[in-house]
Every structure is written in structure tokens, then in C-alpha cells.
């Protein structure tokens, strides 16, 4: 089942993009830089306009809508007149292997990693201000319950962390990145925001510290064990 959809700016309810898709494409955040600029400033919501059994019919309707909106002098960010793309496209195993070999062994520099990290801070992050549903959290919890690392894996993780220190330059960049930022919370989640960041609904200045009963018990037991060892001279 295919459909055409429209993206509307949340700030003033004006349309800015027409698209064609299937499944969850209308709500996907894998978009152009121009699309993200509009959404970062105004926010958006998606509306399905029409459903089709054939993809070519959805393409035709997409082209028709784009033309109609542009004829009405509505400023769309669509880079083309519509009708392109292929839903459900997947590379062959041979192509996947070629891509894998081409990128195999490539490592990002520390500076590149830092830039990527900074680019995803605050409201730039696609999950900014969002929180998993309780059902999703429960599923994640169950999938990770009882998970144990092998001794070999633990050793590798330990070796990877030994002697790993941030350079003076990296520390300065991190400090500059956080300068002027403030913690905000909704009573559950804590996020760090710059003065230019938009504060999500329900968030306010401050931090929330909540420790589960299980964590409290673990901390208590660890402190008791440390006290006993100190008394015994261990």
C-alpha cells in the first residue's frame, strides 16, 4: 500500500513538503539538510493525503500535488517535480560485499568523532526531547536481562580503556561546547541545552536524580562489604 503525504510546519500550520511513500516513510527523519533546517526552526507534523495500490499512481498524484501547490505560490522545499525514487529498494549481496570491502578498516579521527558528537548535541539530535514508551522500555529491559559478557570480552573492554585519555585540545573543545549550557529536566530525563536551543514541552531548568531501589541495594551492599573488609584489615 502506497500513499502521498504532506509535511506541515507546526509553528504556523503551513505546508512545506509533498512526498510519496509507504509504511513509516511519512514520519521518517532521513531527509535533506534543507528539510531539517525547516523542522529545527518550526517543527512539523505529517498527514496522509491519499492511498494507492500501485506505486506509479502514488507518483502521479505526488507530481500533481506539487504542481498545484506551486501554482498557488506555496513555497515547497521539494527539490524536484516529484515522481522519482523506488520504495523497498535493497542492494544485492554482491553490492553489499563491495561496499563493505571499500569501507573496511576505515577509522575516524578523534577530531572527526568530536565534530560528529557536537553535531548531535541538544536539539540537533533526532531523538531530542523524546522518550520511549513504557512498553518499549519494558521490551528493552527484558531483552537485556541476564546478559553477561565472556571473560575474553571483559578483557578486551578493559584493554581498550587502559591508557585512554582525552588530549588537552579535546578537553578544551568539550569545555567550549558546554560553555553557557544548562541542564533541563522533565522529572525523568535530564538534557543539556544551549541558550539557542528550543526547550521541549514539559522541561524546565534543573536536574533530576532518581535511583532505583535495586541500585540503592547494590550501593548499600557494596558499602557494607567495603566496611567489613576495612574492619578485618582486608
Distinct helical segment count: 8
* Sheet with the most strands, sense and barrel status: 3 strands, antiparallel
Shape: extended
Give the low-confidence spans.
none
Please identify the oligomeric state: single chain
Rg for CA atoms: 25 Å
**Average pLDDT figure:** 78
Number of β-strand runs? 6
SSE pattern, N- to C-terminal: EEHEHHHHHHEEEH
Label the structural class: alpha+beta
Give the end-to-end Cα distance, rounded to a whole number of Å.
68 Å
Proportion of residues in β-strands? 5-15%
Helix content: 40-55%
Please list the strands of the largest sheet in the order they lie side by side. Answer: 2-1-3
Task: Give a written overview of the molecule.
The protein has 234 residues and is α+β, with helices and mostly antiparallel strands. Among the domains are: 2-71, no CATH class; 186-234, no CATH class. Helices cover 43% and strands 15% of the residues. The chain contains eight helices and six strands. It has a three-stranded antiparallel sheet with strand order 2-1-3. It has a three-stranded antiparallel sheet with strand order 5-4-6, with no helix packed on it. The longest helix has 20 residues, at 213-232. The radius of gyration is 25 Å and the shape is extended. The model has no long low-confidence stretch (mean pLDDT 78).
Quick gist of this model?
This protein is an alpha+beta fold and 234 residues long.
Layout of strands and helices, then pairs:
Blueprint: E1 2-9, E2 15-22, H1 33-42, E3 44-52, H2 55-71, H3 93-103, H4 110-119, H5 134-144, H6 151-161, H7 168-178, E4 182-185, E5 190-193, E6 204-205, H8 213-232
Antiparallel strand pairs: 1-2, 1-3, 4-5, 4-6
Helix pairs in contact: 4-7
